[in-house]
Amino acid sequence: MATDPANPSDDEAPLSDRPYDGIEYLEHAPPSWWKGLFAATIVFSVLYLQFYHLGTPGRSAVERYDQALAENMRLQFAEIGELQPDEATLVRMMNDSRWVRVGESVYRTHCVSCHGIDGGGVVGPNLTDDHYKNTRTIGDILRVVQNGAAAGAMPPWRDKLHLNEQILVSSFVASLRGTTPTNPRGPEGNVIPPWPTEVPEPESAAAPQAESAPPAAPDQPAS
Ligand code: HEC
What we know:
Helices cover 42% and strands 2% of the residues. By secondary structure, it is an all-alpha fold. Helix 3 packs across helix 7 and helix 6 crosses helix 7.
């Protein structure tokens, strides 16, 4: 077996004595750089596991992501401070496209599974039409979000979301009213009056622009 016609390179390596499916091959040891790399990956995996998963808590990718989210939220909310859970705030936020978008991201994370991406309803009711089951005023949205409804079929979010998130997601839900979802559920509950376009701020916390704006012209976000 010295000169193999299939091995014109004149390789000195011995022929393997374990042919597979009749195919014979030369018995080459893997190159040492390859073995070194292989060993290095094993060593690395042990160190990685030790550092990110078994060592100090807070180093894994998931935990870092959560920390980054929390930090991001602190930064965002540093700007608006602690929102008041009242109708004036809900209306003000509903008409502020920037903060409605923050509410939308909360909605996308927690509410889409039951209410649909565009609020058309899945397990939960359609949030875009004029019919509501548990809601008569815009403040009721926040109450339902906080306390849940139908014995937990609509879960309570009081302890799961930051108060600002509860308020902003409620404002976002209010802003869905009148939009056209692709696959809406039929109407449920009663027709309720339109949301107020403006609610006077409680005395001390008056928003600067709220006084001069005419009540008939809320600056609705275009989208
Ligand atoms: C597990 C499914 C589920 C999730 C998740 C869920 N909901 Fe609901 N939601 C429901 C159901 C079911 C109802 C209807 C309750 C009833 O029949 O009285 C409801 C009702 C509501 C209502 C009252 C609607 C009305 O007609 O009065 C609002 C507002 C609402 N949900 C907002 C939200 C928001 C905001 C979130 C995310 C933070 C959310 N829901 C997450 C299932 C859900």
